[in-house]
Records
---
Amino acid sequence: MPAVQLERLETCNLCGSASADILWQDVEDPVCGLPGAFSLVRCSACQLIYLNPRPTPGSIALCYPDNYPSHLPAATGPETMRRRFESLVFWPCRRLYGPKSPRTPPPFGTGRCLEVGCGKGQLLREFQRAGWDVTGIEPSAKAVAMARQAVPDGTIVEGTLETVGLRDDHFDVAILWHVLEHLHDPMRALQIVHRRMRTGGRLLLALPNIGSCEARIFGRYWVNLDVPRHLFHYSVATLSRLLAATGFRMTWTRPQINPSTISSSCAYFLKRHGISLPPLAGRLVYAAMSPAASLSYTMGDGGNMEVWATRIEP
Ligand SMILES: [Zn+2]
């Protein structure tokens, strides 16, 4: 297998400062267990946290093995016990924030929706069912084939924002669902998205929140660090700044209900200290952590955040 090539980022992607402090060194891949140890740094000026050095754009694909969870088929079957448990434990946050999947806004006219990094097309399928005209961009050929099956009436293009030609001032909604943190140049990506959208259009983001309680508690053992695939880590403050710099205004945010980031971080912490949990114990940890996760979400704090922003003129 060819080796992953690394590159050093000389200036902060958000503010351009060349000054950064090391936050954690020798952080290992908590999700797939790939070899290698990485450093995360914090910009001295704007506090943006990022991986440095990091895999080059040309070799990052090597960091996504076939067992990467986002690339595996979704779990099937009713899992009745787990669903009942979750609907009970997370009732307060659902009551506050609505259903788990993002609310698709009603189409206005012939609403056009663009998803960057659409993966297998599950979210685009929801938007298409709600009446949206959908377009997806996805770099993985395998995922493109699955997305075309999921949204046969949509337009799914293999490539990236930089390589795919799309019309300017065209889209009413743009989505980056757990994508921004994987990009080598999120500033440029949002600038391109801004050009492709109509004024007043809405941007939907989902991404880890490095400012969350669980990130602070688990620190270098937080699974959402997901090295070396997550290249940037935003808090609400640094994300707001990125959005403002690229012509968007944050309008709404909610914690994403995803307590497995807590139980997986517990399991990873124990594993790094010589204790490997059997699968049943892992489920018990998940169940035990869920009430605390629910309380945290209800208080507005979660390991992942969903954000709506409005496109304004820069
Ligand atoms: Zn900075």
---
Amino acid sequence: MKGKAANSAKLGPVIKWAGSKRELVNELYSRRPLEFKDYYEPFSGSLAFALRLYQDMEINSSQMFLGDISKPLITTYEVIRDDLEALLSSLDSPEYSWCLDKNERAEAYHCIRESFNQLLRQDTLEHPERIKLATEFLYLIKTNYNGLYRVNKKGEYNASVDLATEGEKKIFDGKALKVMSGFLNKEDVTVFHGSYEILVETAKAGDFIYFDPPYDTPFTQYDKAGFSWTDQKKLKRTVDILHKRGCYVMISQGATKRIKELYKDYHQDFVTTRNLINCNAKGRKEKNPELIIRNYKMLGGLLKM
Ligand SMILES: C[S@@+](CC[C@H](N)C(=O)[O-])C[C@H]1O[C@@H](n2cnc3c(N)ncnc32)[C@H](O)[C@@H]1O
């Protein structure tokens, strides 16, 4: 994979996602290993870092493996990749427009939310249902209160409708979706729906794995499974296995005391970002302490542990 910048100048996230690393992309990029083979990102979300890496990488790398446990997120990426025209025409239908009347907007939103949750409950989806799920997902995250996806413990999407925004609102950006479709269709890009440990099974010495798991402090639920402290410890065991295998591993996490302790043998850098999750503007200006954890030295070679 090399020199992609010229053809993909506008490539960027098409989904606003809780915990997105848009704010941290430069910090992460400056800490990447200078050389690596394949790239794995098992907690992909909006793909902020993967897209940056893809655009700017001058080095050769054969494959990018991008996964996430969120069914609507990965289904939407697959639909953007395989059925872009059908998706654009579905998004374009009057059913998914932004109602200027607030009562009508709330009614339309609740109806689509119900239909979306019904699709989420199904084990398998037929082809038209996959397009419907992707359409409803993109519509709901554009028209909800803070533009972020979250589910309750039963796995139901429960965010409320945005009644504050007045005037017109763009539900989707067709050009951005086309550029994303081009990226997802590249031969060296694979998307995967499932848990992180399955995706990294095939990682080998010299590969680079970037983990961006849910934060240690709960702020949002992406999936009914959640991510507990036991899960954080299990992830650390996977990181240790990958380290022993000779992989380059980078992890981003909130800088809590127990995370610092858990990864005490690894290199840790402290960085701060704006809190993009907070609902009010004042809260969003607060700085979040974050950790970037690595098992390698900046000038090459793994840490000795
Ligand atoms: C902090 S977010 C990642 C944000 C992403 N890096 C971005 O820039 O948008 C954490 C992600 O982990 C996913 N996730 C939670 N549990 C998972 C698991 N067991 N395996 C894979 N993904 C999981 C969530 O769906 C969510 O997308």
